[in-house]
Amino acid sequence: QTPATARQTAMLQLGGRGDVVIPISGGLSSQGFYYEPRVGIQRLWASIHECRAASAPVEVRWQGGATNVTCEEHLGCETGRRIMACSYDGPHGTWPAMHAGEEMAVWFMLQHRRGGGGGGGP
Fold first, then answer.
1. Which of 13, 46, 82, 98 is close enough to 51 for a disulfide, judged by CB 3.0 to 4.6 Å?
2. DSSP secondary structure letter of residue 69
3. Does an H or E element contain 35, and which?
4. Per-residue confidence at 97, pLDDT binned at 50, 70, 90?
5. Is residue 116 very low, low, confident or very high in pLDDT (cuts 50, 70, 90)?
6. Strand partners, 58
7. How far is residue 32's CA from residue 115's CA, in Å, rounded to a whole number?
8. Cα separations (Å) of 51 from 28, 38, 59, 68, 106?
9. What is the DSSP letter of 87?
10. What is the rounded CA–CA span in Å between residue 55 and residue 52?
11. CA–centroid distance for 22 within its chain
12. pLDDT at residue 75 is higher than 60
């Protein structure tokens, strides 16, 4: 059974396409740890929120740019929360160019309040 608090949790995952420490595709990392693929984690959270099983590309204002930001989201979540993932060109420990990572995180967090529904679109 899913705890009620899980249904209050929205998720935004940011990851560099060149990350070998926590690889987006999962598997054995450069440090010898095994990770689940990001797509599997996203699908799990989408099922908790009763979203569409398949993610769809979504545009955000940080799209493209110097680090080629792209985002996808599991739409139609019954809880009103958002389950999103954004990728960009870069290794582990980097952010998208020009403070985009920080801006994206704040933008995402400000859409959600504990106990309330989701909010605005991309």
1. 46
2. B
3. strand 34-35
4. confident
5. low
6. 71
7. 39
8. 29, 16, 18, 26, 23
9. E
10. 7
11. 14
12. yes
